[in-house]
Recover the amino acids of this structure.
């Protein structure tokens, strides 16, 4: 790839979930995933929002679980209601969480 100044640059880009959330502001909750493309360029990393995926809530949705180390399906699923319970619990925990006080060295 050529850039200004005719410098050669080696880069490997990849996609990552920048933000994963439940949007609870509408009549029906929805899962929203914002996808980023990440391009490492030497000591610099360029991150650009490149996708958005929205899934409206439906009680029959079950999410196939993937092993994050191998990217293979585990054969298990997570019902959407269980995922919503987990996220609600994370929200309740975050509201009450107090960061530990660190003593100055």
């Amino acid at each position: 790839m050529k850039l200004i100044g005719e410098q050669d640059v080696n880069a490997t880009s990849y996609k990552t979930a920048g933000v994963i959330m439940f949007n609870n502001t509408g009549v029906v909750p929805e899962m929203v995933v914002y996808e980023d493309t990440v391009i490492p360029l030497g000591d610099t990393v360029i991150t650009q929002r490149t996708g958005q995926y929205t899934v409206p809530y439906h009680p029959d949705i079950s999410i196939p679980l993937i092993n994050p180390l191998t990217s293979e399906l585990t054969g298990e699923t997570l019902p959407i209601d269980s995922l919503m319970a987990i996220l609600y619990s994370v929200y309740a925990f975050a509201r009450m969480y107090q960061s530990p006080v660190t003593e100055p060295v």
Observations:
- The radius of gyration is 20 Å.
- The chain has a mean pLDDT of 87.
